[in-house]
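Sorry, I am new here, but would you mind making up a protein's amino acid sequence and the tokens describing how it folds?
***
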Amino acid sequence: MTALTLSTAAAPGLRADAIVIGVAKGNKGPVVAPGAEAVDKAYDGRLAGVLETLGASGAEGEVTKLPAPAGFKAPVVVAVGLGTEPEKDAGFDAEALRRAAGAAARALTGSKKAAFALPLAEAADAGAVGEGVLLGAYSFEAYKESGKDPKAKNGKAPLAEAALLGGKPRDKAYKAAIERAAAVCEELNRARDLVNTPPNDLDPEAFAAVAQAAAKEHGIKVQVLDEKALVKGGYGGILGVGAGSASGPRLVKLSYTSSKATKSLAFVGKGITYDSGGISLKPAGHNETMKCDMAGAAAVFAAVVAAARLGLEVNVTGWLALAENMPSGSATRPGDVLRMYSGKTVEVLNTDAEGRLVLADALWAASQEKPDAIIDVATLTGAMMVALGSRTYGIMANDDAFRSTVHEAAEEVGEPAWPMPLPEHLRKGMDSATADIANMGERMGGGLVAGLFLREFVGEGVTWAHLDVAGPAYNEGGPFGYTPKGGTGTAVRTLVRVAELTAAGELG
């Protein structure tokens, strides 16, 4: 991963491959952002005009390269767009800094060192720039010829080192900000790796092994329930989904505890390592990216490890509900009835509505420990993508205040999300003449129906939120900002932020 350092060095004398500066979109053209004063001075105060001549406008994510001025030890200046210039006395928001730093880091693939002269008015800005750099420099090349070096990107290594100019190396707040960025982003990138790993190399057993290794490294207690243990425990949902696969299902419990904690959280992740749809087979064109159907479990795993690395004063338990959904002679059929871990029975009307089945067992297991709150994360429904698009996830909850807390945390860390309702009239559509509930209901509002199904398996009195990340969990388009093509690691930062708020006594 790219190394982050804080530097008080002046831009002209710093040995680096490039100097990164910010440029904003002003009323009369591009405006050089704070942090780049020394660079602008070297251009006799005419840098904005030079950039405009080169076609730069300051638009978000725009990258313009130009030769460095005479006397600079770095050969290139990289101007990256920050978007609209903020009003007077208002700084750039954290997400603008993250995205700009991410775009610059991607543009500097193959470079050994870059100096980032972006606005750093306070420690939080350094953290935002650091996150943008670390997430933007990410690549997944392990299965390419150029990826025999796992750090290589298109035959070139990602940016090796980023020095944040204007940072304060001896300031505890600045040091803490970039240390936090490093811990969270390293785990988020590990979640991206898991999402991007082909399903022939990441089945439930392999995912569980990754979790066990990380738990050992970071002092996290881990428990893995294999098929025999799941049968003995009565986890009918997880077993039913995994019944058609040669790779057996797993339920992994990760427990991070703090001796100073007074609150506890449970995170539950959908971990379908490959989703064919089962007997209700997905049509051609809808299954090529289904290795990403374990993105919720990857996010939960990463968030628990990040909480441990940060030493947060809150107890965090992660539940990874892992299965592969395949068609075979032993697979669950439409019309079958499963007895869930809670004791309720579910009539399976569509085997491609499998995520809610594995989550139901894990939610009930998490509820038995009476945490202060549960958050589940799942690539659950195409309906949520229809509603919110590919970059925003939906939040449902059984408590309005908690839903607002999660939403605010998501927006704060730069993960677009939107609160969604749980309309009671949609519950009737899941009534079954055969079982306690069916796994399908009305087609319209399908994402909300899925949320209502999950609510049935949350213990009484337990605060719960559901994040449907089907849209932003996997980016099938081109990279943007600090978001790569492929697995994105969405929801990791939201979960970590909720844990931080809980540790600070601010759980809503």
